[in-house]
Amino acid sequence: MEQYLKMARFILNHGQDKDDRTNTGTISYFGYQMRFNLQKGFPLLTTKKVHFKSVVYELLWFIKGDTNIKYLVDNNVRIWNEWPYEKYKASSQYQNESLPEFVEKIKTDAAFATAFGDLGPVYGKQWRNFNGVDQLVTLLDNLKTNPYSRRHIISAWNPAEVEEMALPPCHTLMQFYVSKDNKLSCQLYQRSADVFLGVPFNIASYSLLTHLIAQVSGLEVGDFVYTLGDCHIYKNHLSQINVQLTRTPHKLPTLKLNPTINSLFDFGYEDITLENYNPDSLIKGVVAV
After folding, report:
1. Which of 170, 195, 208, 252 is catalytic?
2. Whole domain around residue 80: which residue ranges?
3. What's the confidence (pLDDT) of residue 284?
4. Side-chain half-sphere exposure of 138, counting CA atoms within 13 A
5. Which parts of 161-211 are beta strand (E)?
6. Is residue 284 in some structural domain?
7. Catalytic: 186?
8. 282 pLDDT band (50/70/90 cuts)?
9. What is the spatial distance between Cα 212 and Cα 148, in angstroms, rounded to a whole number?
10. H/E stretch holding 274
11. Binding-site residue set for dUMP
12. Is it the case that residue 257 has pLDDT exceeding 90?
């Protein structure tokens, strides 16, 4: 994952000091691209531990078309909790609950989860029902019937519904490509990229999606191409990034999928495993909401 460290150095050296929506402040650079050969190992960052369980459950949540955090909370995945909590705090029902208390209510009170756990029409909704179009099913069908098409595209950016989302999609558009030797590649365009917290997660998530789609389409994996718009290091993550830059990347882990699964919608958490992941220690950082 030297590509990641190279990008971080580049942003620190060439980025500009910018204010941002969260009032945290960033070092920002516009327009950057990385490429990962998925046959050379699974690109999960090794210069800090990344919580792969969260990567898997979030992706399965997207694939299900779900937009309520209860599925994630029930599986002890915390990555989306802050956004519905902030919305709940602004409601008349708020009773000074802490974030952990809010999450416990989501887990134990179905009516509360329905009322306050939904994020609006975010990724899963757009992937499975973009103005009536199931983009995932369409993609899978077209990969089999017209693999060399240049229209293998899924968009999460729906202008008609952006204002209804707790957080407008950062990873906005993906395009898939089948090579002549039957390898599936994916290019992701991400409009906004949190280099310390989000980017390692996004690399893993879309690389995993490429593996899953390749298996059910009878293809091998090719490259994950990652194109970033506003890629930024939050100022409260500068010390963490600098720690990572002192570390040397380790050998990439290996992804193993249950070979009997032939439908994207049949994958469960137990069907996806990672072998030989030996990262450096976890580096904590606060998410900017």
Report:
1. 170
2. 68-118
3. 77
4. 16
5. 171-178, 183-194
6. no
7. no
8. confident
9. 19
10. strand 272-275
11. 21, 150-151, 191-194, 202, 232-234
12. yes
Q: Identity (one letter) of the amino acid at 236?
A: N
Asked if residue 102 and residue 198 are part of one domain, the reply reads no
Token output for 97: 């609950």
Residue 95: both structure tokens together: 């009773």
**CB 48, CB 281: distance < 8 Å:** yes
Which residues carry a binding-site annotation? 21, 51, 150-151, 191-194, 202, 232-234, 288
132 and 48 share one domain: yes
Out of 118, 152, 179, pick the residue that ends a domain. Answer: 118
Q: Do 104 and 172 lie in a common domain?
A: no
pLDDT tens digits for range 3-47: 999 999 999 999 999 888 888 889 999 999 999 999 999 999 999
- Written as one letter, the residue type at 92 is S
Question: Are 86 and 175 found together in one domain?
Answer: no
**Which of 118, 144, 177 finishes a domain?**
118
Structure tokens at 41: 């190992």
Check residue 289 and give its pLDDT: 55
Looking up residue 248, the CATH number of its domain turns out to be 3.30.572.10
CB proximity list for 87: less than 8 A, separation 6 or greater: 116, 166
**Dihedral angle, C-alpha 260, 266, 269, 271, nearest 10 °:** 0
172-193: pLDDT as tens digits: 999 999 999 999 999 999 999 9
Total number of domains constituting the chain: 2
